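Session log. Operator J.P. requested a structure for one protein chain; no other inputs attached. Running the standard single-chain path with token output.
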Amino acid sequence: MDNEQSNKWWKLVFSVINVFDEGKIPYSFDASTSLFVHGIEDFDMDDLDIMIQWNY
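Structure written below.
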């Protein structure tokens, strides 16, 4: 993944984090997004995988 694409994903990830944290909504990142937020960027991410507690 190139640096420009990585920066776009980070911007989206932090936007989502801010919304969930402000709403006190429990969440976790899943699949390729989990790898991405843990620093593994040697792949092309094509979606954002998020798990949200079922009753939110």
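Operator note: The longest strand covers residues 27-29.
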